[in-house]
Amino acid sequence: MLRLGATFTKRRADAQLDEELRTHFEMLVEQNLQRGMTPDAARRAARLELGGAEQIKESVHDIRGIPLLESIVADTRYALRMLRKLPGFTAVAVLTLALGIGANTAIFSVVHAILLNPLPYPNSSRLAIIESGFSKELRAPASRYEVAALRQRSRLFERIEGIWVTNSLVPGDGEPEQVKLGDVTDNFLTLLCARPALGRLFTAEDAQSNGPTALVISYGLWQRRFGGDPGIIGRVLRTRDAAITIIGVLPKDFRLIFPDDANVPPNVDLFVPIRIDFSEPNGPEFIHTIGLLRRDANFARAQSEADEMAADIRHLVTRFAASNFSLHVAPLHEDDVRPVHRTLVLLFAGVMLVVLIGCANIANLLLARVNSRGREMTIRAALGATHSRAVRQLLTESIVLGIIGGIAALAVGWAALKALIALRPEALVRIATIQLDPTVLAYTSAISIVSAILFGAVPAFVGSRVDLLSALKNGSRGATTTRQLSRASLVAAEVALSFGLLTGTGLLVRTFIRVVRVNPGFQPANVLTFTTSAGDYNFVHLFQQGLSTIPGVQSASLVSHLPFDDTHGNWYDAYYPEGTPPAQQSTNFADCRSILPRYFRTIGATLVEGRDFTDEDDAAHQHVAIVDEELARDAWPGQDPLGKKLNTSDSPKGFYQFERDWLVIVGVVKHVQYHSLTTIVRPQVYVPYQLAPRPVSYVVKSSRPVTLLTAQIREQLSKLNKRAPVARVVSLSELVDHARAQSRFVAFLSSGLAGLALILACIGIAAVTSYSVEQRVNEIGIRTALGAASGDVLRMLIQQNMWPVAVGIAAGFALSFAAAPLLQALLFAVSPTDPLTFAFVALVLGIAALAACYVPARRALRIDPMVALRHE
User: What pLDDT, in 10s, does the model give residues 737-788?
Assistant: First the structure.
């Protein structure tokens, strides 16, 4: 500690040492005078006895201080002075680092928050999602019976809980608000929430009655509808046509994090308990199930136990045996990030390539500086500086540059993170909560130092090697072959990395273009969608007629599930045509949709054959259905499906009272993409609303701008129900655009990274060419003076500086071919080795490199030969 203190208080220590030496000198002089010496002789003898003051100071400094630390401080000051003297170089280098490391910081923030951070739940590492499998469907929800059976049989799960999300109305001042309501098992909330903000959470007793008597609300709803009233506990809220007592308020930051295909949105405002028992072995599957592993269990053992439990359930219930029932266990966090894991990893790899390109770029700039500092390195060597000392000096300069660039990168990273939050697709909803936390700051600091060492190592080791005799003879001018090869190698590496990044971007951009051009099976233009409170057939029929009277409305209808809208839990079931053997009756599944007449006309879907539904297609008449081409081709290959019978589920007795039914096919429609623009997930069965009443979304096609319809829709609705809300008003085009969001997000980010890589590569090539021209000014002057044509000199300079680019493009081809399979999962209708993309990238990179070489080479031809000959 004394040494460290002396290092940082050197001036005061020097003053004290000067005073101490002066005191010793005066004491020696006094002693010599007492011995009878003359004053001059006494002072001379004292100086000889005391020794050199500066040598004593240096010895004391070495003993009292930390010489290495003092050396580093001195090197740092010198590095700052050198950077200040070269503002152009410093600005380019800092900007390069800020862009590369800033982009890296932003993407790492996302990767850290989504892939590396645990879920914000107690015991999150032990949380598992448990999904049911039926034949080809491996990610299905569970029935009450299944949850009860799992609870009874499991030995490795402490708790097994579930949730089902629907819509509900919340009364209040003004218009009622439509919100998401979660039916949850008794301990679902306690599994994910340590303690409520107010009141309590559900207990087993709350789930014993036939209907819900207790209600837990979200923090947002508490503030929004009740003004944060602390007396909310015990207040009665009317929802689902029942008066329910509020017993708790969830914390402000509580949200549900489930896989996208679970149809469990993050923000649910109402929670009521649901009863779990064995009373419905053939009941509907609707509960999304999670479990908490015991501390001594793991996911592999849990899957083995799940296989055993599935076998037991198949043995007990015929329906489960016929459908080859199975259970699948996965870590909740791992399953949640499954859709975006590869995307984020590839984006992170992309920003790391940008950082490497930036490092190669700055390394080239530093090599140019090292060559221009040849005389300085020669003088240092002549004065006795060792090779390691010179390396340390040059590396210190690189690290200082890296630290400055890292500080600038924090600002760039913050801005980039804000842009990511604004552009994020819904699959990356957790990005909205991401900040530059201490872990990210530590990562940025580390990547800045590592980058500085990477780009500073080659220039430091190359520049510090000085042949003293040759350098003194040649005046420290001229680049060695080693340095030329080092610069060429760095250029080739930059180009190869840029080629790989540009190729990946080209493939992703082509994928997005293909996704934009995909026909979703309908025409979304000028179609408005909205939801309101559920009603019986009379209500929806009258409302449909009222919507059709609005000026400009061409058609109006409804559907239980809108395309690309996951706010309702999906409805799908097994189907089979007449004559199917019992063993095959649970092998094929289709999405089921409840609609009113004119739905296909409203959204612009194509009815291939047969007819649309009519108002007479109700439970009292023949039960009918319309199927899509995919199902018709599968169920009746090579046959006319009209008039054929299909067995699937509907609920003619009321909401969610599902039963198996034989439906007569009256029409065939082209397949409509409901889940993904790029994948046919399941075929579709459409049934009349009268056979399957349930919450729906309305669709309205208009010749007027759809944004002008909302007020008139509310007016028509108020004629039937003044308290019914008009909620989730969104155009069908917006839903299609939402389906393209992830492809657009990936294409946009990769394009930004590729553009940045291309700019950095061009800067590096231009810098090397400029330096090469500067080193050869004398040669160019001699060639010009001896009659060399300008075109010949220009061609020579470009050829000599383009060969590393050619090597880099060749290496980039090999790199891109090797990495192509990694992109396969993100591509659609594009080959990962698409020759058109590869050729286009090679052309773009070659033209950009040629331009980067041409500008400084052309400038060299303007040098006056006489000035060039006097350059030495």
Answer: 988 888 888 888 888 888 888 888 887 777 777 776 766 667 777 777 777 7
CB 383 within 8 A of CB 785: no
Asked whether residue 714 falls in the same domain as residue 746, the answer is: no
Instruction: Round to whole Å and give the CA distance between 585 and 135.
Output: 10
Amino acid identity of residue 32, one-letter, is N
Instruction: Determine, yes or no, domain membership for 644.
Output: yes
d(CA 862, CA 848): 23
Question: What is the H or E stretch that residue 227 is in?
Answer: none
What is the domain range of residue 866? 479-520+739-872
**Is 273 a domain residue?**
yes
Listed residue (725, 203, 208) closest to 216, CA to CA: 203
State the DSSP H helix or E strand holding residue 852, giving kind and residue range, or none if neither. helix 835-860
Query: Is 405 part of any domain?
Result: yes
What 244-247 contacts at long range (C-beta under 8 Å, 24+ apart), as own/partner pairs, is 244/212, 244/213, 244/214, 244/215, 244/272, 245/213, 245/214, 245/215, 246/199, 246/215, 246/216, 246/217, 247/199, 247/200, 247/201, 247/202, 247/206, 247/214, 247/215, 247/216
d(CA 8, CA 14): 12
Q: Is residue 495 domain-shared with residue 590, that is, in the same domain?
A: no
- Residue 516 and residue 631 in one domain: no
Say which residue the tokens 């491996």 belong to: 138
Instruction: Output the CA angle 736-351-764, nearest 5 degrees.
Output: 125
Reported as a pLDDT band with limits 50, 70 and 90, residue 164 is very high
Confidence of residue 63 (pLDDT cuts 50, 70, 90): low
**Residue 382, CA distances (Å) to 369, 480, 711 in order:** 20, 19, 87
Partners of 184 in beta bridges: 163, 273
Residues 454 and 542 in one domain: no
Q: Are residues 197 and 298 in the same domain?
A: yes
The 3-class SS string of 768-788 reads HHHHHHHHCHHHHHHHHHCCC
Spatial separation of the C-alpha atoms in residues 451 and 446, rounded to whole Å:
8
What sign does the dihedral 378-381-382-385 (CA atoms) show? positive
Question: What long-range pairs does 829-834 form, CB within 8 A, spacing at least 24?
Answer: 829/511, 829/514, 829/678, 830/507, 830/510, 830/511, 830/514, 832/507, 834/506, 834/507, 834/510
Cα gap 24→15, rounded to integer Å: 14
Residues 770, 633 within the same domain:
no
- Rounded to whole angstroms, the Cα distance separating 779 from 785 reads 10
| 428-461 per-position pLDDT tens digit | 666 666 777 888 889 899 999 998 888 888 777 7
| Whole-angstrom distance, CA of residue 454 vs CA of residue 434 | 29
Long-range contacts from 37-45, C-beta under 8 angstroms, 24+ separation? none
Kindly indicate the confidence band of residue 576, based on its pLDDT and cuts at 50, 70 and 90: very high
| Angle subtended at Cα 593 by Cα 679 and Cα 287, rounded to the nearest 5 degrees | 85
Count up the domains in the chain and report the number. Answer: 5
Residue where a domain stops, chosen among 65, 94, 110: 65
Give the pair of three-digit tokens for residue 417.
């993170």
State whether 836 and 743 are in the same domain. Answer: yes
Take residue 401 and report the two structure tokens written for it: 């540059």
DSSP label of 839: H
Which phi and psi (to 5°) does residue 558 adopt?
A: -150, 165
Answer yes or no: are the C-beta atoms of 686 and 627 closer than 8 Å.
Answer: yes
Give phi and psi for 270, each to the nearest 5. Answer: -125, 140
Q: How far apart are the first and last CA of the chain?
A: 53
Residue 528 in any domain: the answer is: no
- Percent above pLDDT 70 for the chain: 90
Same domain flag for 383 and 436 = yes
> CA 313, 319, 323, 327: dihedral to nearest 10 degrees?
-30
Q: How far apart are CA 705 and CA 712, in angstroms?
A: 13
